[in-house]
Amino acid sequence: MVTRLLVAEHEAPTPRASAWDLTPRERDVLACLRSSLTSEEIAGSLFLSVNTVKTHMRAIYRKLGVGGRRDAVRTAVQRGLL
């Protein structure tokens, strides 16, 4: 029992999901942000409501730790998400 506990302590931790793990739909919205589309244009192109687009944008900003569209796109490019 003690041996198992000691071995378990020294095993590599399992990787945790990174804070910027985006859903497929959030990635779609982010790609549209890169194209400088408005929320209304994104909604139309992805067949979503404007409110849903804004909800996805808030989630993207939170996950990337940014405050706006430009920062989201810049950070996503730097991290290889776009």
Topology:
Layout: H1 2-10, H2 24-34, H3 39-46, H4 50-64, H5 69-78
Helix pairs in contact: 2-4, 2-5, 3-4, 4-5
GO molecular function: DNA binding
InterPro entries: Sig_transdc_resp-reg_C-effctor, Tscrpt_reg_LuxR_C, WH-like_DNA-bd_sf
Pfam families: GerE
What report would you give on this structure?
The protein has helices at residues 2-10, 24-34, 39-46, 50-64, 69-78. Helix 2 (24-34) packs across helix 4 (50-64), helix 2 crosses helix 5 (69-78) and helix 3 (39-46) packs across helix 4 (50-64). Residues 13-17 have low confidence and may be disordered. It has a domain at 22-78: Winged helix-like DNA-binding domain superfamily/Winged helix DNA-binding domain (Arc Repressor Mutant, subunit A). The longest helix has 15 residues, at 50-64. It is globular and about 30 Å long. Helices cover 65% and strands 0% of the residues. The protein contains five helices and no strands. The chain is an all-alpha fold.
Q: Can you summarize this structure?
A:
The protein has helices spanning 2-10, 24-34, 39-46, 50-64, 69-78. By secondary structure, it is mainly α. Helix 2 packs across helix 4, helix 3 (39-46) crosses helix 4 (50-64) and helix 4 (50-64) packs across helix 5.
